[in-house]
Sequence to fold (316 residues):
Amino acid sequence: MSKEMEEIGRIWFPFHGADTYVYSLFSNNKCLLIDSGNSEAPKKYILPSLRKNGIEPNNIKFLINTHAHIDHSGGNFFIKKISGALIMAHELDVHWIEDHNEQFRDRFQPYKKFYLITKEMKKAYFKDIGREVKVDRVLKEGDVVNFGDYTLKVIHTPGHSPGSISLYDEDKKILFTSDAVQGRGPSHQTIPLPLYENVKDYLNTLDKLSKLNVQTLFTAHHFAPLNKSILNGAEIKQLLNVSKNIVKKIDIIVYEFLDKGPKNLGEVAKYLWIKMGGNWQTPLNPHLLRLARAHLNNLEEKGLIAKEKERWVREK
Ligand SMILES: [Zn+2]
Fold:
């Protein structure tokens, strides 16, 4: 392992069955965190791990959220309270980090016709996302965060969420993509499905990242088929290629299904689920519905299908 790698801490925590990682960079006894986990992660996993490296809470100086999702920004309040760290996030995800009701509404309400949002689900969501706290520095494409001998360039990599970012150190050839590159999807799912909400953005992100000179890639979960969070050399190319191919595959599945006449979102999501290896008994979930919706929007933007009331049909 090179010296740089030793200075990068990888902190594991379980998030509803998913192996999830927060990364910590060290310099002169100070620490920069990449993501804060869910609300429980700082106390149970992040602080104990940092203490092993001789880092006390007041040594945490910076916290960069790669995006607003609950397993990445849910620990913000706790980290801020114990360290006063400067919190940074991309301009397009700031409103979700600062307003949890808005994040819940935007991400789950649009699909409530096709699955039941139970009280328990809502309760668990708001527990995981913790309390709200303001973002101190709003990031955008091309911004640079200097920390010790790290020069982290902010690369806007939307698709998974509108304000997803990757952090790139060109000299060290390291890249943190968090959830921006999904492969076939998070490995812990029985049937992995990539999670993105905008197909065009996601494909642009994959293209953008494949142009970078990267030796080591750090992700926030294990993604199929590589099933690991630190990737080197050829593995990086493989993950990017798999990611791209699955998008094309899903586009085709959705388009072909509409050959059978007009379909609503629930029907498309169900068909996609079966085609990916799932069974009819599994109830629809928001991730699947969001993915199906992303592809319907994409095909519609391309002029291949049209929306008529609540159904999509092929353009003649
Ligand atoms: Zn995410």
In short: Residues 234-257 form the longest helix (24 residues). The two ends are 57 Å apart (CA to CA).
